[in-house]
Design goal:
With about 700 residues, the protein is mainly β. The chain is about 10% helix and about 40% strand. The protein contains 6 helices and 49 strands. The strands form 12 sheets. The protein has a 7-stranded mixed beta sheet. A hairpin with a 4-residue loop joins strand 24 and strand 25.
Length: about 700
Amino acid sequence: MTSTTPHARLPRVRASELVGRGWLNTGGRDVSLADLRGRVVVLDFWTFCCVNCLHVLDELRELEEARRDDLVIIGVHSPKFEHEADPVALAAAVERYEVRHPVLDDPELVTWSAYTARAWPTLVVIDPEGYVVAQMAGEGHASALAALVDELVEEHRAKGTLRSVAAGAGDVYVPPSPTSGTLRFPARAVALPGGNLLVADAGHHSLAELGPDGETLVRRIGSGERGLVDGGPDVARFSEPNGLCLVPTELRAYLDYDVLVADTVNHALRGVRLADGQVTTVAGNGQQYMVGAVDNVLAAADGGAPVGGTLAEVDGPFGSRLTVVVGADVPEQPRPAGLPASIESTGGAVLQKLSSPWDVAWVEQTGAFLVAMAGNHSLWAFDGEQGSIDLVGGTMNEGLLDGPLVDAWFAQPSGLAVGPDRRVWVADSETSALRVVTPVAGTTQGEVSTAVGQGLFDFGHRDGAADQALLQHPLGLATLPDGSVVVADTYNGAIRRYVPAGADASPAEVTTLATGLAEPSDVVVLVDGEPWTPGEAAEAGARVDLLVVESAAHRITRVALPATLVGELLDGGAHRTQRPVTEVLAGELRLDVPFSPAPGQKLDDRYGPSTRLTVSSTPPELLLDGAGTGTELSRALVVNPEVGEGVLHVTAQAASCDVVPLLDDGTPDPDVFPACHLAQQDWGVPVRVVDGDPGDRVLTLPLRG
């Protein structure tokens, strides 16, 4: 602790009561603020579709365990999608993500509104006397939150208003009964040579090899304990693995692994050798990539160039430029600062921080694996031969924007599939969209277009013309021999089929092949009982079956397709996220994003401006002025009076670093190396343009350090 003085806290306002449909993880009892008096309370407003919310759950684990006697974390689940309002789905999500604190089910956003939350995730800190003292939007607040909690504990212990409670002795958290089974929330599956299936068994933090029946367990790769450890099948550890991709046959001997795994919560790619189950980390260092941070590539222990090599730029897939670490795979070199000892490899790609890789696919024409990096809304390319990985698609802004691959906007891309024509299909989950990356003829550039989907807040179950069709948070997809695409439409519990526009000018169409599934997350295509690979010939009239990963049912389900591949036309209606709309006045509008560094930190301007603000809108015509990127955390906007409603997209960043203590002579202590911190939040604020008092022209979105 550097100070016990209250810092940049909100005015003392009584916390609102916790109101919702019910509670989870409490043994059936309701929890009131009175039950929590005397302890520090952190409210975590989340929704289980949101990868940023999942990041915060992981950030809170260590804090929660270390300070459980004095701190209570309460999850307030305020859903975005219709499916997330289902209490059964919420209970499954709480189990899936190992939430170990009480959760309030807030489907009507009553408590969300009472605390004026505007973004997922939002954290609210309540002191032991029941007053709100801080609100933090976004992720990356672990160190700031820990400092504030420690400050409050010390302050209220001195005042006599702290009531410590040992875990298990009157604690409001009651763990649920564990479930058992061969699979637990499986995420992906891939067919192996010989007919077996390899399943990313996310809930068991391992890979399960099943027999051709999809039920018989042949072996398990991974100990089943959450962690990042390389080694044999009984030693290796994963953390909620998702994507799986078979390595091309000609590369397996050279790379010394047969399957590439997107190990999502470890922020890493892992290589698995099937002969003996050996697991090796091939990209990622276990730390999360933070947009705008200066330390996203690990340096040497002394802070210099990457260990054993230097950074270089090379040509990459789709016309990108890749920043790679050259010569960093020499075993004799000392390990980089921050690289876990559990990672056996010291190749260049393991120096790069990643952010929740969700799926991976081999793209032959680029000679690289494409990675759906859900955590920062982008696509990356991993070159196993060069040992390099870098951004190739997306600006890391969250949204739905087509165009050149490097300039496109994605929103939590979660599934990848390569078609017979070598186009790459993307399940863009948060926009409930099906996107496609198409190489531009005669160049190495890529172009992104949207086949199905309308935006961040539009979803539903509607078949028919593709430009009017609606999905709900799809996570997986596969291509069929006829060039159509099957989509695991996760939150609709359905398998949908997209048929591109025909040469005869027939329009693109979406149909439904199967319904009643429990959060389908992936599809494996079988032709005449054998795994089918895009590009392989399929005889006319061949039998097509789908092996569907039903994640919430913990099983693999076979769906037989009709010979004509004609799906059913369904219309379950269109939906929009029901969040409170912010009313704004036409004309001038001041946007303020106040920011205060955490205790013991200061703004970090060593590498240029420490703050950045990006503003855009949907539709673009909503803003007549003020869109774009700048370094000030305030902006004068001009709202178009001719546009009745829309969404303001705001991304704010602020970099800070630890304050270095001074020696007696006033110089910084040379033995103290300040840690860097980056606070970032993306807001999508639904707005309605109204007439009103000209004095009410400020929109405030706090960003907390």
